[in-house]
Amino acid sequence: MEKVLSRNFHHAQPLDLATYRAGGGYDSLQSIFGRDREEMVNELRASGLRGCGGAGFSTGLKWSFLAKDAPRPVYLVINLDESEPGSCKDRQVLYRDPHTIVEGVLASAYIIGADKAFVFVRGEYKVGAAKLEKAVQEARDAGLLGDNILGSGFSLDIDVHLSAGRYICGEETALLNALEGYRANPRSKPPFPAVKGLWGQPTIVNNMETVCHVPSIMHKGAQWFQGQGQNGGSGTHLFQVSGPVKNPGVFELPMGVTARELIYDHAGGLLDGRKLIAFQPGGSSTPFMTPDQLDTPMHFDAVAKIGSRLGTGGVIIMDDTICPLKYTRNLIEFYARESCGFCTPCRDGLPYLVHLFDKFELGTATAADHQTILELCGLIGPNTHCALAPGAVMPVQSALQLFDDEFKKHIAAKGCSYSPVAATASQAAAGAGVQGGHH
Ligand SMILES: Cc1cc2nc3c(=O)[nH]c(=O)nc-3n(C[C@H](O)[C@H](O)[C@H](O)COP(=O)(O)O)c2cc1C
Ligand code: SF4
């Protein structure tokens, strides 16, 4: 497997344009400029590249939705909001190799025929956004951005936009509202952004990692990309592992690597004396997987087949020192706080779930509360305007199935029997994991 996205991560500082180009950077443009756009979209479809922002939708298929005679201007918007707990992959490329982003945006913009590109960066990634700005300026100065790039007749500029904050800004239509200067409420779909997006114009929204795969696919071919994956997956992916493991971090590995290889070989396995209870495979909105599912290939279809979601490939570990109810409660608290407030089931339902979980911790819960959590998840999931709330209840529904005995124990014991000291130490390790660097 060839490292693509993390190939320059060993350098202490992001590469300047000259050094990046000396290593083959921007060479992909030779394979892209002048080539038939439809043919390139077909090649992308054949490569098996799927969106890395969480949903795993075929990138080539999404791009094919853009009408050939789409009214101008057409926009490309890159989602670098990365606010899902457990997800920290895009940040690595932003801080360590911003020219890889510029090249990915430029290649993708050419293929879809975009007139302008925007990179929407998570508000806390301020330093990273400045690094990207610098790379964009270097590209402008070298004629890689601007009018008639390298004599191709194609013109493009990239605007780096630092978010004002909030998780919901990562939802693609809320992101478009935020970019336009409005409150970040999700829009109704349809119309999808490819038809009516930024300022009402046709817009393709993609995750940052997704577009960074495009140059090498165009340069080396769809078959090469497929061959980079394993066990039915295509290409590589920036997997992340956080929580009580020896070597938390971000790892570029074949799509389809098993969860066991990822957690034990690359992330070093659990801290000494800890036992794996469960893990979330793709960020905090994905249903739990269990130790008997460790041999599942980490690609979209295989993880979906066992009832979870690959999401962003950000694995979060739950060990035997963490109360599963407390763990789950913390997740819902995040989603309750980040609700945009537009629809009632999410705005009022998620805080009520937190309240119910608190009753289990405080020892006042009854079997009726357990039932209410179950029913509330069923009501919230399918009745909201965007995917934030369904994503929030997925781990709760999976916790209800997996940790049924824990709910009962909390009722019988009138509270939580987990040692608060052990839980605090474990949570500190989990926090360190999310901060962890690339390995
Ligand atoms: C609440 C919420 C937050 C999201 N946050 C992000 C994010 O931070 N980054 C991202 O790429 N996609 C995020 N998504 C998914 C985007 O809506 C969209 O599907 C994605 O940017 C499409 O790009 P892709 O096809 O390349 O994955 C989020 C979705 C929801 C519902
Ligand atoms: S589900 Fe939540 S975040 Fe999404 S629109 Fe409704 S209130 Fe807003």
Structure description:
This protein has 439 residues and is an alpha/beta fold. Helices cover 45% and strands 10% of the residues. The protein contains 18 helices and eight strands. The strands form two sheets. A four-stranded parallel β-sheet has the order 3-2-1-4, sandwiched between helices. The protein has a four-stranded mixed β-sheet with strand order 6-5-8-7, with helices on both faces. β5 (236-242) and β6 (249-254) form a beta hairpin. α14 runs antiparallel to α15. It is globular and about 75 Å long. The two termini are 16 Å apart. It comes from Pokkaliibacter plantistimulans. Its cofactor is FMN. This is NADH-quinone oxidoreductase subunit F.
Descriptors:
de novo design (two linked rop proteins), 4-stranded parallel sheet, 45% helix, single chain, iron, 439 residues, alpha/beta, Rossmann fold, globular, Ubiquitin-like (UB roll), binds flavin mononucleotide, Nuop51_4Fe4S-bd_sf, binds iron/sulfur cluster, 18 helices
CATH class of the largest domain: Alpha Beta
Number of domains: 3
* Mean residue pLDDT: 95
How many individual β-strands?
8
Q: What's the total helix number?
A: 18
Measured distance between first and last alpha carbons: 16 Å
Based on helices, strands and strand pairing, what is the structural class?
A: alpha/beta
What coarse outline follows from CA principal-axis ratios?
A: globular
Radius of gyration: 22 Å
- For this structure, what is the CATH homologous superfamily of the largest domain? NADH-ubiquinone oxidoreductase 51kDa subunit
Please state the oligomeric state of the protein chains shown: single chain
Q: What would CATH call the architecture of the largest domain?
A: 3-Layer(aba) Sandwich
Beta content: 5-15%
Low-confidence stretches: 421-439
Q: Secondary-structure element sequence?
A: HHHHEHHEHEHEHHEEHEHEHHHHHH
The CATH topology of the largest domain is: Rossmann fold
**What summary fits the major beta sheet?**
4 strands, parallel
The kinds of small molecule bound in this structure are: flavin mononucleotide, iron/sulfur cluster
Protein name: NADH-quinone oxidoreductase subunit F
Domain NADH-ubiquinone oxidoreductase 51kDa subunit iron-sulphur binding: 325-370
Family: Belongs to the complex I 51 kDa subunit family.
Keywords: 4Fe-4S, Iron, Iron-sulfur, Metal-binding, Oxidoreductase
